[in-house]
Amino acid sequence: MDPTTIVWMALLMGLAAALYSAVGHGGASAYLAIMALFSVAPETMRPTALALNLIVSGFAAWRYFRGGQFNSGLFLAFAVTAVPMAFLGGRVQLPPEIYRPLVGAVLWLAAIRFLWQPARLAERTVRPPRLVIVLPTGAGLGFLAGLTGTGGGIFLSPLILLFRWEEPRRTSGVAAAFIFVNSAAGLAGNVTAVEAMPAALPWFAASVAAGALAGTWLGMEKLPRPQLLQALGLVLTIAGAKLIFS
């Protein structure tokens, strides 16, 4: 990569990290889109996105945990089955023609709900889920996370909020931790691809770290709950577009 390309990619990744970390996400889908835009080799894209996900989601999880915006029981219930399945998903190589448009359409449907009457959605009463639902759901989300090269939070957050399992800000904390463990497992499952990471990775890492610092501050302290849901709707719209049109 030439220096100009590296600078533009780093700036775009930093902006993506700020937006995604505001809702507890790592931004892998955005990093994949940015790398595709600049014609990065496919074998480089997934491990690079997962590595950047680790930085952003790890920092976001720590910030939300320190701020008391975390539900450890809900996180563990999803993570216990998701992590091994993310490892398996990271080892699978499938043609994207079928699953990517379907997943993108699902994200768009969720985005519509978050952008429409977010105040009403934010005020609903929370009800804890049953393990018989959470455990298989976590397994499915983990496998999908490893398969797509994302941390799975882009799928987890809508489920938690739509089924009223937690309120928006604590959902962001759970999603950030979920993304971190799944990204680590997915990267471990595809460990041979680590050798394909770009030499410019330190620059990308510094940019997304700065973006995560700004984004988590915005998500934890500045955005009211309805606006937090609208931000999540925007993130889902972008991620869905990336999956459908890439």
Low-confidence stretches: none
Largest sheet: none
Structural class: mainly alpha
Choose one word for the global shape.
Answer: globular
Can you describe this structure?
The protein contains eleven helices and no strands. With 246 residues, it is an all-alpha fold. The protein has one domain (3-245). The longest helix is centred in the N-terminal third of the chain and has 25 residues, at 42-66.
What key phrases describe this protein's structure?
246 residues, mainly alpha, 11 helices, 76% helix, transmembrane helix, TM_pro_TauE-like, TSUP/Inactive_protease-like
What topology does this entry show?
Elements: H1 3-21, H2 28-37, H3 42-66, H4 72-90, H5 99-115, H6 118-122, H7 131-148, H8 153-162, H9 168-189, H10 201-222, H11 225-245
Quick overview of this protein structure:
By secondary structure, the chain is mainly α.
